Amino acid sequence: MLSTLRRLISRNPLKQMADTDRKVLAICMTAAFVFWLILNLSQEYSIRREVTLEYIVDPERVLVGRMPETLEADVSGTGWNLVWESLVPGPLPVTIDIRNRDNLRLTNAELRQQVQRRLSSGALAVDNLGFESVTILTTPKEGKRVPVRSQVSLSFANGFLAADLPILEPDSVTVSGSTDELDDIAYWPTEELTLTGVNNSIKRIVTLAKPAEGLTLSRNEINYTLNVEAFIQKDIEVPVTVVHAPEVDSYRINPSTVSLRVSVPQTAYESINASDFSLVADLENLRNEDGRNSVPVILQEQPDEVISVFFETRSVEYYLIKE
């Protein structure tokens, strides 16, 4: 392979030419390239440019509906002019001013003229704008206060749970826009956010969902606070209270107490005791099972801090004591 390459290099005719001849050849090739470049760049070409539309409205008014925000335009001209145009960064910005008026009829011809003014050369032309004439309407801006709804999804680490509901500050936001659009808005959501393996209290800023065109929010963020605690289990012996008992001298239930296994936040462990719970055996629900008077046990009261309650004894036996 190397021998073949050396053989080709050794046969290079330029090596056998005099210096003067090589210089003449280089000048001729350069001249040919310049002539070719001039010839080709003098012809007509077309490029694609992005156009962005910005609407300027009176502060007390808003647009009705959604107006186009971006367009694609075909720009044509000679290669020389298009070279400079292609070097301009970003899209072509066009401003539509509808201040001090309720509506504006924007035609294809008018928009084409505005795009034309943004081009780098007057020799360039806008051939295809892809825009149909449209009437731009505005309406007085109204405000509506709506609650904020959290879209934060949480999954906790083992042994941890939320001690209470999340706190959103502020818990409401003012949405401004046209009356027709505001009628359908009952709340405003936050952006969706997923937090996994949570094992500490949360205090962070959450972004509100981005409003649609024509709507504005009084703020874009809220404070999100959630108290997260480790929870532990506690066994509590609670007496069973009999209700709707017959008027007899004495009776007895067995068992008279039921063991509850409760899951509570660690901070509430010491403060929760048997008096915070109410277990009831209602004799109106008395039933006979295998010759025994059985009464279901119902948990009627428990502290708000308790996360869950489990007890195996779901019924007690009721006995009348005869003297």
Automatic annotation (TrEMBL):
Membrane-spanning parts: 21-39
Superkingdom classification of source: Bacteria
A Pfam family matched in the record: YbbR
InterPro entries assigned: c-di-AMP_regulator, YbbR
Keywords: Membrane, Transmembrane, Transmembrane helix
Name of this chain's protein: YbbR-like protein
Taxonomic source organism: Neolewinella agarilytica
